[in-house]
User: Fold these one by one.
Assistant:
Number 1:
Amino acid sequence: MTEVVATNQTILVVGGGISGMTAALEAAECGKEVVLIEKNPALGGRVSQLYRYFPKLCHPTCGLEINQRRVKQNKRIRVLTMAEVTGITGAPGDYTASVKIAPRYVNENCTACGDCGDAAETTVDDAFNYNMGKVKAAYLPSRMAYPQRYVVDPVVIGTPEADKIKAACKYDAVDLSMQEETVQVKAGAVVWATGWKPYDANKIQPYGYDRFANVITSVEFERLSDPHGPTGGKILRPSDGKEARNVAFIQCAGSRDENHLRHCSRICCMASLKQTNYVREAFGDEGKSTIYYIDIRAIDRFEDFYQKVQADPNVKFIKSKVARILEDKEGNPVLHGVDTEGYHRYATPYDLVVLAVGMEPSVSAANIPAEIVSDSSGFIEQDQANGAIFGAGCAANPLDVNRAVQSATASALRAIQVINRVARAEG
Amino acid sequence: MSIEKYTRSFLKEVEERVEEGHWVKMCMQCGVCAGSCPLGPHWEHTPQKIFMMIRAGKREEVLSSDSMWMCTSCYQCIVRCPRKLPITHIMHGLAYLAKREGLAPKNQPTAQFGQLFWDNLTKTGRVNELKLSLGMYFKDGFSQGIKNAMAMQSVGLGMMKAKRLSPMEIMGGHGVKDKSGFQAMLKKARELEDSRRKLA
């Protein structure tokens, strides 16, 4: 049984991505008790799946490592992974959350030596790499995973393979008797930081993401470019493994569209501008990028970054929302549409097409197990009616990492104020 | 080119006088309508270009354009438009304004058919299929009419067999019971439309 010590002076942080980690750390480093809930087996969220950040083009692993150390060192933070909040009852200063914890089948004894992974034969989809590869049924979620602890996939439970995996462990860390459990967690305030998910590209029918192998999403392109991704950092297209030297980026794939997501997802323009650097990095002057856009929204100081990319002779900008994608005999996606600067009709083949998919809330506010005021896209609004449940990061708005961290810090401050009131009342 | 040429007067006119014209300002120039239109390559100006021309005050060029008359009402543009502009309706509205202002291109087949259909229908309150087809066949002269009729022979005979077309319609054809009432109704509707759209 998982023991969680929590009181009305505890802050519950739901979501262990960059926003949740930040909120938890800010609150804990101010002396508050924090329970941090993460659905996945490791902290880090979408940020850990990025190859580089914009605008500095540094690696997210760096910033994440610092945060992981802060979490590890702070005794006030209790981290629950593979856990989901299924219900919240109560009022500000006195909430009770039901938290469902899925079995990991691996306990704290794990040293991440990897012997269980060697013993496993079955493979499962590699969620960290957006299912572009496979991992063994006993796996470390990612290289940077925190906690640095293996997971045994439920598909092998009850099979002789599970016993083999258990036998391979020298530290008695594999526990096949683990069961799903639900614990109650008290909290005075809640920071809801469940983040975002990429919009389902299959819904954008004219782009044929479901039909054409060489039409991929921007988040998949991050993994393709990452040396620790499924291709070892080589930008190879899925259909035939050919180097993708001529890449098209389609902006507003799902965003700013009444048929899909009503809002502008804010990050996609910068993400594509950044990704043209990946193409250049991989192929030098041989790498060509073309960005199809309605208008580039490189917000505030990112304008500099935009201008730098504009100055790159290997990057072309075409002002047009692509109308549809077809495929030629060589498996090249062919982009069809009409541009707005001259109204030229085009039909242009590329090696690879990257859809800059929009952001939608991972957990739409309607599905949060509490009464929450949200906007028409399901992002949490800041509203008195939400009591002491505060949206943070991309659960509240489509934000880049920088702004998500700001938002998380603000939410931590709001939660701390509630806890201080509780503390005064309780004496 | 002087800056005075770019006034919003034509946009205002379109907003007042064209069905769904108030949507024109909502276009964000993404071009999905043009790329999705099955007849796209045959348009002189694509829909997003027409909207931009309206905003730029190019009244003469827009209204005398052949473009709006190419619309087949397939509604693909409305379905795809990220801002849900009722593009099909706006195109028909613009075509109607062009027609009323006498700026519609001469000998545009869609415009010709539209006029033929309207005259045919409003005479008796019922469409006279025979006269409508013959009118269309012979619009470019007698010998071309014979050629067209011969080419369409099998379709015509099939329709006759299925009782969808009667040769007796040449005598005047069927109509509604109260023809004068029907015509009075149309007249009133047109008066209302004209005053609302300032078309009179």
Number 2:
Amino acid sequence: MSVKAFELVPAVERDLLMGDKARINIECIECCGKHLYVGTNDCFIHHFLLDEVTSSKGKLSYSAQKLLHKYLGLKKPVAELRAASALERLIVLCDGIVFLVDMVTLETVPSAAGGGAKIRSVTAFCINENPVNGDPFCVEMGVLSSKRRTVQIYMVYEDRVQLVKEVTTPEQPCAVSLDGYFLCLALTTQYMILNYNTGTSQDLFPYNSEERRPIVKRISREEFLLAAPGGLGMFANAEGISQRAPVNWSESVIGAAVCFPYVVALDESFITIHSMLDQQLKQTLSFRDGHILQDFEGKVILASIKAVYVSVPLPLERQIQDLLVSHRVEEALILTEGAQRNIPKDKFQILHKRILQQAGFIHFGQLQFLEAKEHFRKGQLDVRELISLYPLLLPASSSFTRCHPPLHEFADLNHLAQGDQEKVLRCKKFLISYLGEVRSTEVANGCREDVDTALLKLYAEQDHDSLLDLLASDNACVLADSVPWLEKYHKYFALGLLYHYHGQDSAALQLWIRVVDGDLQDSTRSDLYEYIVDFLCSSSNLDLVWNYADWALRKDPTTGVHIFTKRPGRKDLPELNPDDVITYLGKDSQALILYLEHLVLERRIQKEKFHTHLAVMYLEKVLSLLSESSPDEVQLTEARGRLQALLRESSLYRVQLLLGKMENCEQLLLERATLHGKLEEHDKALHILVHKLRDFPSAEAFCIWASSCRDSEYRQQLFHLLLGVYLDGSLPANAQAAARGGTGELEMAAVDLLNRHGEVFDAVQVLRMLPEGWSLQLLRPFLGRAVRASMHSCRTSQIALGLAHSENLQLLHDRLKERKKPIFVSKKKGCHLCHNTFSEPAVVCLPGGVPVHTHCVAQRVTDSPTKRQLTNSSNHT
Amino acid sequence: MPDKMKRPDVKLVLLGDMNVGKTSLLHRYMERKFKETVSTVGGAFFLKQWGPYNISIWDTAGREQFHGLGSMYCRGAAAVILTYDVTNWQSLAELEERFLSLTDTANHDCIYAIVGNKADLTDPKAHLSRTSDGQPEDQTECEEERTEPQVLSACPTPPASPASLSGVMLHKQVTHEDAVALYGRILRYKGLDEKSSLPAEKVCFETSAKTGYNVDALFETMFDLVLPSILRKRHENQESPTVDLEDSQGAHSRKARIGCC
């Protein structure tokens, strides 16, 4: 309740109208432009000129100037007055008679020659404000007669009235209103709509007109407002349908009018104002002795018995603002939207948006964020209005100023929350979600920097996870403004990302390095060091890489070298020259090894330089480990393993160089053997393995490795060589070796070799090599296998022979079958070559089964220039 | 365009004795809540956007005082929802005695639904909220909220006793079969053939505005059933010679612009 929609302004005071005459009452009023006519119970018409006066404070008042008053001479009250301004006539109902008076002189118009200007026995009349007749100089009037149950339609001219239609009604009508062809009537027991043109009628609803005074008020085209039972104001259109919900008046309502969007009604002591939009009672004005309420050209005029007042509507915007001030958001919006058709379109849009925005802020102030958001969205709020509520969020560079007049009453968030930190927090959370939603929409157009910077600040302050997402993606955060903010909240990692986004990678790296080094505190990423390495790894700025790789390597060479080794091979990234990297890494052997490994083992670059370098590095590592007083066995084994693997796998390194480097090192015999193997100096290699290392499994493995890419003959050769080495070592140096107890060992190695790899050897050759004295038992596995292998191969070849033979037979059989037909040779048949008859059974068959003489064929073969040999001769009979 | 200003395509009217829960049903459907309502004065209407159509739903006053207005509300209605209270036999009888004649002004092809409200008082299954949004209802809402203010002394509904909360069900005075039988009589009253009309099982509902049971089903079924009516009305409007001034205004101004350039 209590919207201030109307103000009651006195128009004609009692003094002006009747002075001190107590018996005189106002009976009816009519207003036409500035002219106000008042009919009284003593049969007078008073004519006033009503002027609107606006005070300096904007307050409206009326000044009434009495122009004339005229006695009509009937001694009865003036019941009704209606102006027909086009005719300059007032239509007067007095003492049951309707007649015309001049609007200016108030003189009764005498009847014209053609017809009367008076209608008698009239109880009520109404003017058609939407006449069907197009003549501007006549007025259509509906008249209720006291004599008959009819409604008469008259045309009123300047000096006469003319009956044009008369329709009967089922009951006595007591009130009427007219629109187009439609009469809206209050009958004794009901309301009805009657089309006077077609005569069709439509009952509306029952109403006891004797009990309560009916109201029939035309409110717009083909729509009427009626007093209904139970003090309702019902709306009904010409079709008899109610298109608006009723308003709830009091039972004793006297008069009603519509002043969109309000229904103004008068009862004995109050003026009530309902909204047609939501049917709610909006305002109640106390008004004693209320008598008349009528609207004239949109102006609602009321009269008590003694005085006249104008009900002045307050400007719509003022009403809306009042509603907003009292936080009645929905009502304000309904009012705004309801007024749409009364306001020019462009003006309405501006107003509507503004109201929506204000409504949004009211909801916001009440922490009703869902509603607030919806209103902000609909009202297309400049999001900076909202951001500016939060102190310091807008960047200093922002050109934004709050709109004037302000959309809300809040100075800032602290003012809104009144120091309630929980409220502040909720507001901040709302802004986070709101900005997050709008930043990628058109709402943020033109203020993307402000939005993103504000969001960044909020994220940083609230320790929000999305801070990094914001910075890692496309954003418009203002650097100058964000830096101090991020520093304040120790978001150095994020700040680095921001620097990076703005192309200041160097600044970002310096910052991050300080975090890693512990100068600054930011726990965003525990793996920041790895992140930096990763960052450098994929940086396209090589100077940056060279500058900061040093720090990274110092921190941790193993990970630091990833800068070079993990560099993705993308087109947009410039390549690093391996030679430069090697030179750069020169001082750091650990990193260098990793890098060379990356080149050689991962990227498999086939360059002698890298392979040799890596091999040398490996070797140096091994040597340095060896030179320690008590070398770490695990490390040593691992280092040697790598060295050995490289020496074995690669064939690009410079063997002689390496061999030279380890010439004097008696601990690296295995490596030396491998190198000799690379040089194909297998005897030297085996010599080392067998005699120096006495590592027989390695010797065997060497043979297998060295012959791995060769044919079996080569392998056999190697194994024979090894056997030779074993046997040579045991035979001539018998005495000396025996002294060391090694002869037996070598012999055993030879035996094992034979027994294990017997299949590689040529058994015959081996038997020749073996010393006479060896027992058969010793070589039994070897010999057994050799005999079996020999037997096996013998049998296999026999089988192969047999199979080949049978295949041959099979083919012969097939061939014969192909020919099928026997070849007949008889004494009567002649040879195709010499045409002589056959005398003996031996013949030669030509292809096609043609028998010829043997000698004829021989003859032909020797004669033939091609010297073709016929091989497939046979002699079948 | 605000809701209130939209022109409704079709009209749906809720009729029934006072206190059967017409306003509550509508409120439950529109606002998804069961709220304390006061006795409806005169009538109220809501506009529901259903797909591309606007459906106006009229909530009428059940009080005898406003009875005369009923036939006006029903004029041109495409569907009428006759509402009774399952715990009150008289409320069903009233439908036939008082309210059926009001529907004479409705469209000739008007659809009638018979709805027994307050099913939660007699039927345990109606306690399960069947609202589509699935929000659990606040069961602490108590009985005072249910009963409408007793405007007249002859209140047909006994106020629901607190016993109903503790699981003791009230006696169900009106069965589904009674409603189906009434539907048959309505068809006969309208002179409609039972075979060519909608089957009773499609238009007889038992609902609970309090728990939301069957409420969405009721309204959505009705909306679907009136769609043909809307389409026909739109079709008629297209053929009518009436010029929509609001529409043509835009066209005129456009022409005018072209003309002056």
